[in-house]
Amino acid sequence: MSELTLKANIDRPDDFYADLLAAHEGLPKAQSDALNARLILVLANQVGDREVLKDALAAAKQAMHRDPARS
Amino acid sequence: MTKIFETPLYPYERSADQDAAEPVRHPVVVIGAGPIGLAAAIDLARHDVPVVILDENDKVSWGSRAICFAKRPLEILDRLGCGQEMVDKGVQWNLGKVFFGDRKVYDFNLLPEEGHHRPAFINLQQYYFEEYLVNRARALEAEGKPIDLRGGSKVTAVEAKDDGVLLTVETPDGPYRIAADWVIACDGAGSPVRSMMGLDFVGRVFEDNFLIADVVMEAGFPTERWFWFDPPFNKGQSALLHKQPDNVWRIDLQLGWDIDKEKEKKPENVIPRLKAMLGEDAKFELEWVSIYTFQCRRMEKFRHGRVIFAGDAAHQVSPFGARGANSGLQDTDNLIWKLKLVMEGKAPETLLDSYDAERVHAADENILNSSRSTDFITPKSDQSRIFRDAVLDLAEHFEFARPIVNSGRLSVPATYDGSPLNGPDVAGMPDRTRPGAPAVDAPIGNGWLLSRLGDRFQLMTIDADAPDRIDVEGIEVERLELSTNDDPSGALAERYLGDAQAGIYLMRPDQHVAARWTKFNEAELRSAVNTATGALSNRVETPD
Ligand SMILES: Cc1cc2nc3c(=O)[nH]c(=O)nc-3n(C[C@H](O)[C@H](O)[C@H](O)COP(=O)(O)OP(=O)(O)OC[C@H]3O[C@@H](n4cnc5c(N)ncnc54)[C@H](O)[C@@H]3O)c2cc1C
User: Fold this and answer.
1) Which domain holds residue A44?
2) Does the CB of B394 have a partner CB in chain A at under 8 Å?
3) What highest taxon heads this organism's lineage (chain A) (predicted)?
């Protein structure tokens, strides 16, 4: 089926980013974490394709910053 | 009133073996008269293979333990001759509710597929399940079948040799020894046989405890499965309520890891917990209470020469998903026909290694499913709890999240993909009846397909020609002639033909598919029977 796209694909990225921050605005950490988890699940369902989801998990892991001070 | 599980059903009686000068030799000895040992012995006796069953006890399971029995085991019990009693007594259910905190997040209907004789599930106390098996064993004995059930007979030593096994049996009259060509060890999760043979049992212990209570109450709860995540009456934990026959309700309350088991089991501590759940005014009586730590483990190999392990002795799963007894019955279903062919010299001893291959594969599937349920119910980290709660919150609003909620995936039989016994397949025929799969039931005339299958190799033809009987080196293959006209509902065609116009299925004695074609070819059939009985050396080359 489709492949994971790692090229820029979001229309007006600044607006999306602002929406993302706005959704978390004023939430305590626990609620922000819960919101993120729900968002991941909603988006994963939209993707659906298990191969694409695996590639997305791998891409997210690959970009992990290996600075010990941040681990 | 004395409960059935308090009544000795097979009290110790002195056996002639105890007075013999030399250990008497038996073709098969089954150790353990739990559900799995009883099923194994019944299957053997039905086929006129003499069998002795030894159990240290003389009663059925103390308290209920297993309550949920799935369709495939019921079909196996039909073959053994006691499925109907179970279904008549059992409670059928299709509806379930899932709660999170104090909200109901959704309900579901299992909506079983039409065109099957047996329901998707019944709930039945394990003590009834075992009682009906004991009754069946007694009925076979009365018909003159060679089945000898010995209570009060504890196996205390096992000496395995290349050509048999020597057992020491402790009784109220002191110990005696018997010999066996074959031993089937069904002595439960703590298997003393396994320990006596120094064998492994590796896996995972879940750091959690569950209070399991069966209560008798006249309650207005419907016949549904109710599951709570983090309910107000058991904060941070889970709970389950499920109905059994005779107004008995199963309640599971998760307790967490750091608890005092003996204290938690005391009625003065159990009753307030149940009242918090059922309401202060609920009138109930405690039938049975126990505390479990769940484990998922299995032996590396189920066959050790002449000693073959089945049921909980071979593998143990956490109860979420009802896979213990259900999968144990599939073990003996898989084993007995193979053992019989080997004992008759019609198949090489190596056929028994396919029991190992197929049932280890099934055990791994069960352990995977039951570990995943346990991980959902008891999140192991902050992050997994965040995701678990996110799934539940979403499930309240959106249908897409409901299949992710995992309060136990109910038991379905394993398909033996990749089994060395599997023969040819045909592209375009239905996936669910591929080689290795258990037969899927369908209505045939006034009856059911599965009642016409089993116990022997059969060639099931659907709108196709084939000889009525073929002998493949001593193995009779009998034709079962069917037509799509036998089933106006179309289920037979949908389940067995798919894109094909006609179908020929080689069925194993355990009702699993061995091979399939769209037209009959004798050389290919012979080759497939040889493959399915482990007689690979006799393999016939198939023409191309
Ligand atoms: C709370 C709970 C809920 C469950 N729910 C379900 C469910 O819904 N569905 C399901 O399918 N499964 C369920 N199970 C699992 C199910 O109870 C077991 O899988 C099943 O009992 C296994 O049967 P068995 O015959 O292998 O072993 P057991 O039932 O343990 O029987 C072993 C027998 O061996 C005998 N024995 C032991 N040692 C010796 C010896 N040295 N000599 C002679 N005899 C001996 C014992 O007396 C016993 O009779 C549940 C289990 C629990 C604890």
Assistant:
1) 27-70
2) yes
3) Bacteria
3-state secondary structure of A64: coil
**pLDDT > 80? residue A71:** no
User: What's the CA gap between B184 and B37, in Å, rounded?
Assistant: 8
Residue type, B288: W
Confidence of residue B516 (pLDDT cuts 50, 70, 90): very high
Full domain range(s) for residue B80: 4-8+24-90+118-201+304-345
Cβ-based contacts of A45 with chain B (< 8 Å): 400-401
B189 and B333 assigned to the same domain: yes
Q: What are phi and psi of B60, to 5 degrees?
A: -75, 175
Q: Does residue B438 sit within a domain?
A: yes
Evaluate whether residue A4 is within a structural domain: no
Instruction: Examine the pLDDT at B2 and tell me if it is beyond 80.
Output: no
Q: How far is ligand 1, taken at its centre, from the CA of residue B189, in Å?
A: 7
Token look-up 């983090």 returns: B230
Q: B320: pLDDT confidence band, cut at 50, 70 and 90?
A: confident
The answer to whether the complex's ipTM is over 0.85 is: yes
The reply to whether A49 falls in a domain is yes
The pLDDT > 70 percentage for chain B reads 98
Residues of A in contact with B390 (CB under 8 A): 34, 37-38, 40-41
Side chain identity at B384, as an amino acid letter? S
Q: What is the pLDDT of residue B284?
A: 93
Say yes or no: B384 contacts chain A, CB-CB below 8 A.
Answer: no
Strands B24-31 and B303-304: unpaired
Asked whether residue B240 carries a pLDDT value surpassing 60, the answer given is yes
Dig out the tokens for B136 from the structure: 């069946």
Sorted by sequence, the CB contacts under 8 Å of residue B333 that are 6+ apart come out as B39, B43, B76, B79, B510, B511
Average pLDDT of chain B? 94
What are residue B488's phi and psi, to 5 degrees? -60, -20
Cβ of residue A46 closer than 8 Å to a chain B Cβ:
no
Are the Cβ atoms of A34 and B393 closer than 8 angstroms? yes
- Whether the pLDDT of residue B219 is over 90: the answer is no
pLDDT of B293: 87
**CATH at residue B68:** 3.50.50.60
- Residues 6+ away with beta carbon under 8 Å from A48: none
Spell out a b/e string for B365-388, using b for 16 or more CB atoms within 10 Å of the CB, else e.
bbbebbbebbebbbeeeeeebbbb
CA atoms within 13 A on the CB side of B542: 14
Question: Which residue type does B255 have?
Answer: L
Helix (H, G, I), strand (E, B) or coil at B464: coil
Q: Give tens-digit pLDDT for B471-512.
A: 999 999 999 999 999 999 999 999 999 999 999 999 999 999
Give DSSP secondary structure letters for A10-51.
Answer: -SSHHHHHHHHHHHHTT--HHHHHHHHHHHHHHHHHHH--HH
pLDDT digit string (tens) for A11-70? 999 999 999 999 999 999 999 999 999 999 999 999 999 999 999 999 999 998 776 665
Which residue type occupies B467?
Answer: P
Residue B257's pLDDT band, with cuts at 50, 70 and 90, is confident
